[in-house]
Specification:
The complex is a heterodimer of chains A (about 325) and B (about 325).
Chain A (H helix, E strand, L loop, with lengths): L6 H16 L4 E2 H8 L3 H12 L13 E5 L2 E6 L11 H16 L6 H15 L7 E3 L7 H16 L1 E9 L4 E15 L2 E8 L4 E6 L3 E10 L23 E7 L5 H5 L2 E6 L5 E7 L2 H10 L4 E5 L1 H19 L5
Antiparallel strand pairs in A: 1-3, 2-3, 5-6, 5-9, 6-7, 7-8, 10-12, 10-13, 11-12
Chain B lengths: L4 H14 L4 E2 H7 L9 H17 L4 E4 L9 E4 L1 H4 L8 H11 L2 E2 L4 H13 L13 E5 L5 H10 L2 E8 L4 E15 L2 E8 L4 E6 L3 E8 L13 H8 L7 E8 L4 H4 L2 E9 L2 E10 L2 H9 L5 E5 L1 H17 L5
Parallel strand pairs in B: 4-5
Antiparallel strand pairs in B: 1-3, 2-3, 6-7, 6-10, 7-8, 8-9, 11-13, 11-14, 12-13
Helix pairs in contact in B: 5-6, 10-11
The chains are: A alpha+beta (about 325), B alpha+beta (about 325).
């Protein structure tokens, strides 16, 4: 929570505060502070400032008047500021594009409610200017994942622990684990369950298309109090200091690697190639990726990684050469 | 003590909202507390210019005009009907949708704006509970470097130019586009617009834009056709799924779980002195399937179809070369 005093953040709040309080006589100051996402201390400062403001004349009857009772506040004179300022184009765009995205996507929100909200907000905002931004939340997932999602969301909504059969690509292993669901996320075309994993003893994101089985348990979900939701604003995967870094040269056909995986420092080379530094945690996983990219990637560093790729490729070719014709 | 800037600005808004007459800068200087702090004319005008800019940036509709029958400089006022948000009353389910929508963005361009919209709706008396419990929480990021300049160009109606990398056939080429909109579809961002070189509407994946986006010419030069539905334009441009192909694989016993979980066992066979299973698998994207199968190295062999076996082999030979070994 940031209690910024710069007028760029503060002025919009000050202009909204009087009409906000006007609509809620006797609201606890703590509650108002929470709605504006500032500390109660900052909100009191804002109220003290507003108390000094008013209409020309600036006498007792011209100034905004507030009455405090215990920990609550009521506006007794609004000095003509009874309604909030209109939404800016950017605010209307941010909200309406998001609402339309929800309306387009099945299973995320009550579509009828979303449509009614869109119509009301458009009417209140004034001209419904086409925004030039559109968002679809459809997923890149098969029909099996839709079934998993139904079961998992039942667990989330009913607050039940889940037993998951989960495939971990980095280790190429399927494990059974009991998790305490926290929420379902839909990010960049894929669904994830965020849950406290009792096996790993930490918060984990489970990609639903990697869930091979799910049982809703009779047990209540109880993530420990210190289980913090993942901050998705920096992407789902955080650089981990224990990760290693490979230096790869991607041919144009393999450039998608830089779009899909965490890479640092991309250097453009001739003929559409690129050199990237790619972080990876598990060598066997990295070897699998590189084998599959056969010919489209050159491994410059580390030497052990290049050797591991060569060893696996040789073994595979030797075995394939023994294959009887079918 | 100097009066806080925020206090001066609130007083300025209240003053201009309460007047029907246009007030000249000099009148405002005399009336609104805080401007008296400016000792010189120059200091006052600098202060007043900054204040006007800040109010305009916030979307406060400052009107400039002259009162009828009066000579003199232009004055200022705020028309209440342009300033005030219209009446709005949301049912609880509608307010819940708004709360979810405001949380959608993980984006430097939109997160703050959505929050600002929420504050104003609350100030209009709508109760929006941010802790509303939802089945799925969608998040949309706008982390592509090309996003901010393209969004700005779309909003300003300016033509853009950028280098664009096409995967098949491989080429990087300069494109000049009249942008109509930016669109997120299945987790990826696209630019939709009129491609001046192709003389046709096209969509471009933002992650394939190489280097900087340059905006050209005047604002307002681009007119988006009314009939265009951005989302379905992108949806139509996506390649459709290829036919499902079935393959038969040999998988070493206990290995390649990633393959096993998607396949049906059809038998067992020892091979190359190693026990294993015969599996059948449906492949929706045969091209990427070869990459994926090759990744398992000696643990997975393709028995059928032959074309897949050959592709996997080529990948492995290529991987040897990429690892610095001449095949």
């Amino acid at each position: 929570m940031t209690a910024s005093n710069s007028s760029a953040d503060r002025l919009p709040r000050l202009l909204a505060l009087v009409p906000y309080l006007l609509a809620r006589p006797g609201i606890p100051i703590d509650e108002a502070a929470a709605d504006f996402e500032v500390t109660p201390r900052q909100l009191r400062k804002d109220l003290e400032l507003l108390w000094m403001c008013g209409l020309p004349g600036y006498g007792p009857g011209d100034l905004i008047d507030l009455s405090f009772e215990g920990e609550t506040v009521t506006v007794t004179f609004d000095a003509g500021m009874s309604r909030p300022l209109r939404l800016t184009a950017a605010e209307a765009t941010a909200l309406l594009v998001a609402l339309r995205a929800l309306a387009e996507t099945p299973g995320v929100a009550d579509k009828a409610a979303v449509r009614r909200a869109v119509a009301k907000i458009e009417a209140a905002v004034g001209q419904a200017q086409p925004a030039g931004v559109a968002v679809g939340l459809a997923v890149r997932e098969g029909p099996e994942t839709a079934l998993v999602r139904d079961a998992v969301s039942a667990g989330v909504l009913r607050g039940r622990a889940l037993r998951l059969r989960y495939y971990t690509p980095s280790r190429d292993e399927v494990t059974d684990r009991v998790v305490d669901p926290m929420r379902l996320l839909l990010v960049e075309g894929r669904s994830y369950l965020e849950a406290w994993c009792r096996l790993a003893d930490g918060v984990r994101l489970f990609r639903l298309d990697r869930v091979d089985g799910v049982d809703v348990l009779d047990e209540a979900a109880s993530p420990p109090p210190h289980a913090e939701p993942t901050d998705t604003s920096e992407g789902l995967f955080r650089p981990d200091p224990s990760q290693r870094t490979a230096v790869l040269v991607l041919e144009p056909d393999a450039r998608w690697v830089a779009e899909y995986y965490p890479v640092d420092g991309l250097t453009e080379l001739a003929e559409g190639r690129a050199r990237v530094l790619m972080r990876y945690a598990d060598t066997p996983w990295m070897v699998r990726l590189l084998l599959g990219l056969g010919g489209e990637v050159r491994v410059e560093r580390p030497a052990e990684l290049a050797e591991a790729v060569a060893r696996q490729a040789e073994a595979a070719l030797r075995r394939a050469d023994h294959l009887p014709a079918t | 003590m100097a009066i806080a800037r925020a206090e001066r600005l609130v007083n300025l808004v209240l003053c201009l909202l309460s007047t029907r007459q246009y007030l000249s800068a000099e009148r405002i200087r005399a009336i609104v507390p805080g401007y008296a702090d400016a000792v010189t004319d120059e200091a006052f005008f600098r202060m007043f210019e900054r204040d006007k800019t800040e109010l305009r940036d916030l979307g406060v509709p400052l009107e400039i005009g002259r009162n009828s029958g009066v000579d003199g400089p232009d004055g200022y006022r705020i028309a209440r009907r342009d300033y005030e948000l219209g009446d709005i009353d949301l049912e609880p389910d509608e307010a819940a949708a708004v709360a979810l929508a405001a949380r959608l963005w993980d984006s430097p361009q939109f997160t703050g704006a959505a929050h600002g919209a929420l504050i104003k709706l609350r100030a209009a008396g709508v109760d929006v509970d941010q802790d509303v419990h939802v089945a799925v929480e969608p998040k949309v990021r706008t982390s592509e470097p090309a996003f901010p300049p393209l969004l700005a160009a779309v909003q300003q109606g300016r033509v853009v130019e950028f280098d664009y990398r096409r995967p098949v056939p491989v080429e990087v080429r300069r494109r000049t586009v009249e942008p109509w909109g930016v669109v997120a579809w299945r987790g990826r961002w696209y630019l939709v617009g009129h491609d001046r070189d192709r003389r046709a509407p096209r969509c471009f994946r933002l992650s394939r834009i190489v280097g900087e986006v340059a905006a050209l010419g005047k604002a307002g030069a681009v007119q988006r056709p009314d009939a265009v539905d951005l989302l379905s334009f992108v949806a139509r441009s996506e390649p459709t799924t290829q036919n499902v192909a079935t393959a038969t694989l040999w998988v070493a016993r206990g290995k390649a779980q990633g393959v096993r979980r998607r396949a049906r066992p059809v038998g067992e066979r020892e091979y190359d002195g190693e026990p294993g299973d015969l599996l059948e698998i449906d492949l929706r994207f045969p091209d990427s399937a070869a990459n994926w199968i090759a990744g398992f190295g000696p643990d997975v062999l393709v028995l059928e179809p032959e074309v897949l076996a050959k592709t996997v082999r080529e990948k492995l030979v290529g991987a040897l070369r990429g690892a610095g070994v001449r095949a």
